[in-house]
Amino acid sequence: MLATHVGAAAGIRFTAAAPFGSIAGELRGGRLWALELHPHPPAGAGDRPPAELAAALRRYLRDPAASWSLPLARRGTDFQRRVWAALRRIPAGRTMTYGELARRLGSGARAVAAACRANPVALIVPCHRVVARGGIGGYQGVRSGPEVELKRWLLSHEGALRAD
Questions:
Q1: Catalytic residue among 23, 127, 150, 160
Q2: Does 109 lie in the same domain as 40?
Q3: 89: domain CATH number?
Q4: 100 and 150 share a domain?
Q5: Inter-residue contact 128 to 151 (CB < 8 Å)
Q6: Is 127 a residue of the active site?
Q7: 128 and 89 together in one domain
Q8: What is the pLDDT of residue 106?
């Protein structure tokens, strides 16, 4: 079930149940401001989010290679936007290490990881496709626990990991 809440300054906020837990997001001025993934079910239920966004989420869940055409709010520093643009070029079913991405951008792996952590629109900017050199790496700023299992689910869903 999907929930929508309208706040004067915040715009339109919504939550949706997902196979891995829930998705929460916010639209401002007709642009996607935030899309967050959570490893737990949503706390409440209510109205549906805007139809275009709900359809895009369903497409991703059916086909992780489906393209996203939603307008995004301009956020982040110049460096973060460079990292996020590079993340959008990693196709579903593929991964890249933090170090590989850093080399492509002429930067350091920690700076890339920080930009991934600051990503405001998960799935559309697929930071989960960046992994550590020796394994899956962290997700949402943590190195273990339900958030990392969410990353594992996404990578499995996209065909980048074998199901055990």
A1: 127
A2: no
A3: 1.10.10.10
A4: yes
A5: yes
A6: yes
A7: yes
A8: 97
Residue 70 domain flag: no
For residue 68, is it within any domain? no
Q: Chunked in runs of 10, what are the mean pLDDT values of the chain (164 residues)?
A: 43 86 89 92 66 88 90 95 97 96 97 96 95 91 91 95 63
β-strand 96-97 against 130-131: which pairing, if any? parallel
Tokens of 141: 């700023």
Look up the pTM and report it.
0.88
Q: Are residues 121 and 84 in the same domain?
A: yes
> Which residues are paired to 28 by β-bridges?
31
Q: Which residues contact 58 (CB under 8 A, 6 or more apart)?
A: none
